[in-house]
């Protein structure tokens, strides 16, 4: 059944329902329309909510029914009251659907096989990359502009000094006042690339990170981990040279810390296997490869030996 224009079809259907419950004669075609609308109207409704609404209406009208039940009379007034109740229930069903779609149900935008551009009411523009899904509440934009994102997207946020823009992604969020940035999500690996302005990135278990243009926040695929990488162009060559500015771990198993260090420093680190599950909390901001491995060894109570391009941590 095609999607109806609420302003016209809902009023029409309600009039049909009113005639039906008041026992006015309706045609077979009208009955067919009512049946089709019933199927359409109820498919998106919460059955529990609908049943509770009906029970509340009947409870509210119960004092009209009781006197007639007691004396055993079913006069015209009692019949009219039941008809009124039926109309109200039908109105709740129809009105609930209208209210839900118009004022409550969030707008969902999906990029299937190619990029999709979404223009939000505040003037912000979101480019959804293939497979991404953006959910925007009907209240947007409010005092705080909030959207939910699955997958990858590039945001060009309309500037506002008093209305923050927050992107809730899967396990982390990005807060801005007006800027251009990209949110990437691939399995456990999360990242935010900042092109213009400033952003604050928060993730469970780690401090908030503040990015400047040409910087990336990433968890490197490990929870409770934060890395800030600079992609600023080299002053001499003009080429972008990725540089690890900071690397922090908060209660992360040693084996995962070692994997991250080996991957980022292109080195091999040997360590006591009995300590692989030991939880590490450390901030390796600004140090060289050797200095950071020395700091890790200190936390473990180990000594460090360097052998070619490998480090050995010994008790």
Notable traits:
35% helix; elongated; single chain; 19 strands; alpha+beta; disordered N terminus; 32% strand
Briefly characterize the structure.
The chain is α+β, with helices and mostly antiparallel strands and about 325 residues long. The chain has six helices and 19 strands. The longest helix is centred in the N-terminal third of the chain and has 29 residues, at about 75-105.
Q: Can you characterise this structure?
A:
This protein has helices at residues 6-21, 28-42, 47-71, 76-104, 254-265, 289-300, and strands at 107-110, 116-119, 125-128, 133-136, 145-150, 153-156, 165-168, 172-176, 180-186, 189-196, 199-203, 206-211, 215-218, 225-230, 243-253, 268-270, 279-283, 303-307, 310-314. It is α+β, with helices and mostly antiparallel strands and 315 residues long. Strands 2-3-6-9-10-13-14-15-17 form a 9-stranded antiparallel β-sheet. A 7-stranded mixed β-sheet has the order 1-4-5-7-8-11-12, with no helix packed on it. 20% of the residues are buried. The model is unreliable at 1-7 and 64-74 (pLDDT under 50).
